[in-house]
Amino acid sequence: MCYIYTIADVEWGYLNPARGDKSPCAADLWGDTHLLYGSFVKLPQGFEGEIVAKSNEFKAVVS
Q1: Is residue 22 pLDDT above 90, yes or no?
Q2: Residue 18 pLDDT > 90
Q3: pLDDT: is 55 or 30 the higher one?
Q4: Angstrom distance (rounded) from CA 14 to CA 19
Q5: Where are the alpha helices (DSSP H) in the chain?
Q6: Residue 24 · residue 44 · CB < 8 Å
Q7: CA terminus-to-terminus distance, the chain
Q8: CA-CA distance, 36 to 1, in Å (whole number)?
Q9: Residue 9, φ and ψ in degrees, nearest 5
Q10: Inter-residue contact 38 to 31 (CB < 8 Å)
Q11: 9 by DSSP, 3-state: which?
């Protein structure tokens, strides 16, 4: 299965809106967050915290 997205397709939202721009952001791409799904997570510069993955298939891209 192949998914192709343009930057215009990605809708970002704060994971913790109370923290505003200090909060990590996420964009759901496909699936159901209670089952199988794919998403992007964007961490603000200088973010310190814990990342919890509920899957044995967690991939990250760092730039």
Answers
A1: no
A2: yes
A3: 30
A4: 8
A5: none
A6: yes
A7: 26
A8: 13
A9: -80, -20
A10: yes
A11: helix
Determine contact, residues 28/13, Cβ cutoff 8 Å: no
What is the structure's pLDDT at 14? 92
Q: Identify the pLDDT of residue 44.
A: 84
Residue 54 in 3-state DSSP?
coil
Q: What value does the mean pLDDT take over residues 32-41? A: 78
Q: What is the pTM of this model?
A: 0.62
Return all residues near 21 (Cβ < 8 A) that are at least 6 apart. 44
Encoded amino acid at 17, one letter? P
Distance (Å) of CA 24 to CA 3, 10, 12, 27, 49: 23, 15, 10, 10, 10
47: region left, alpha or beta (phi > 0 left; psi from -120 to 50 alpha): beta
